[in-house]
Write a structure and sequence with these properties.
By secondary structure, the protein is of the alpha+beta class. It has five helices and four strands.
C-alpha cells in the first residue's frame, strides 16, 4: 500500500514539473523554429503528398504542430488526379521541385538533412 502511494506521489510531482516547464513559455521558440523550418521547406520546393487516414502522415503532421500550415501539402483524397500525375504510390511522399522523392515517414531530422533547412531557423522579424 505504501509503495502505491509513493508511486502516485512521484507521478504527481512529475506531472506538476512537466506542466511548469510547458507553461513557462519555453514552447514558443520551438514553435517559431518549426514555423521557420516549414517555411524553408516550402521555399525550397518540398511538397508533401498524403491522406487524412494515413497514420504516418498524421505523425509527420504532428511533428510540425501548428507549423504544418506552412508546409506545401496535397491531400490525395481531395486531389487524386494531382497525386496520380505525380506518381504517388504510398503515403507520405515528399517531392522536391527538382524531382527528388522521399517516400515514407521522414520526421523533422531527416527532412532537415535532405533539405539543408535548419530546425533552429526562425523567421526574421522585419
Amino acid at each position: 500500500m505504501k509503495k502505491n502511494i509513493g508511486i502516485i506521489v512521484i507521478m504527481s510531482i512529475g506531472i506538476l514539473v512537466a506542466i511548469g516547464i510547458f507553461s513557462s513559455g519555453r514552447g514558443t521558440p520551438v514553435a517559431e523554429a518549426l514555423s521557420g523550418f516549414a517555411k524553408c521547406l516550402t521555399a525550397k520546393g518540398f511538397k508533401m503528398y498524403g491522406a487524412y487516414w494515413c497514420l504516418h502522415c498524421q505523425n509527420e503532421k504532428a511533428a510540425f504542430g501548428k507549423a504544418f500550415n506552412y508546409v506545401n501539402y496535397v491531400e490525395c483524397t481531395e486531389k487524386p488526379e494531382v497525386c496520380t500525375s505525380a506518381g504517388i504510390k504510398g503515403f507520405p511522399t515528399w517531392i522536391t521541385k527538382d524531382g527528388r522523392r522521399f517516400e515514407g515517414e521522414m520526421g523533422i531530422e531527416r527532412l532537415a538533412e535532405a533539405s539543408s533547412c535548419s530546425v533552429s531557423t526562425v523567421e526574421s522579424k522585419k
